[in-house]
Amino acid sequence: SSGINAEYGGDRIQVKLIGFRHSKSHRYLPITRTDYVRSMGEFSLRDSVINSSKTREIKEDEKVDETKDLIGSLVVGQEIPGFVKSIDSAGFYWISLTPGVEGRLWHTLTSTDKDEVENWTDRFSVGQCVIATVFSTRDNRIDLSLVGALTVDAKLWCTVKTTMPGVGVKFQISNRDFGVAPLTELHDHYTKAPLEKFEEGDLVQCSVVAVPHGKPPTLSVRKSRTSQRWKKAVGNRVVVDRVINSVSDLEEGSVYSGYVKSTSPTAGVFVALGHSVIGRVLMKNLSDNFLKNWQPMFPLGKLVKVYVLQTQPKVELSMKRSDLKKGKTSDDKEGKESDDERDVQR
Questions:
Q1: To the nearest whole number, what is the mean pLDDT of the chain?
Q2: Of 12-16, 43-47, 60-64, 190-194, which one has max mean pLDDT?
């Protein structure tokens, strides 16, 4: 609901002075007026405050950092009430949490409904009360969310920031938070050109796969992760590459699809099978035939099929045609060789 009734305009009301807030003025250059501040009185309309006999002395030089005090009492994920103060054209709402403290509510974190996110400026009016979740308190700034905290399996609408060949897609989650969806988390059916349908500014629903400490969160746009309705509707009738969350999801003797992560002239080819699962193909296991100049055949991001030789202590793979033929396919696709794979075996 709105915090202030429009009928108050011009009315005389009883308020109680509860303190002064000191803020710097940009009317003068800092070098000429370094001590210039503006004092703004803070008042309360609450009956409990007006009728209270408690008072406190307000000193002229009192400078309490309200933001730091509030942040010190906040926990990421907790709910906090506030009022919409203004709408910033940069893509967020300013939410007033206390008379001197504001938080930012990024537009993609205002709803789980795509239409509401796209028309975010129409969602709330100035003065409207919202119950928000603390999203971040880094660098003495408060970021808010109406869709919950950044946790594993959370569903968020994000915008495409950039595509990174051989790596994945970088998404903007909030005004200060970004996440990456690796190539293995872009499609349920791996393709040779996994990035071609993503353009800067696109609004895409993402599922949070991992939130590593000190690193950007790992995201997924696979329908099997982001949409329960889609998952229930298609069941096992759709062709998908299985989600590989850990080494325990791999089975020795099976064939999987993956993307080339990197190559080494001495170690061979490293293949991403999942967002955190990387396997190695030694040079001797690249082909049944001898390959002299093999590195150009495996550019970063190339889609390949591999046979799992072992999972412990390290994931060792093979691309030999003889191994691929005898291996069990782990996904729902037929184990057919691509033209590129046939070229490697020649």
A1: 85
A2: 190-194
Summarised one tens digit per residue, pLDDT across range 87-124 is 999 999 999 998 778 999 999 999 999 999 999 999 99
Q: d(Cα 123, Cα 78) in Å, to the nearest integer? A: 22
| Cβ pair 14, 2 in contact under 8 A | no
328-329/254-264 β-pairing:
parallel
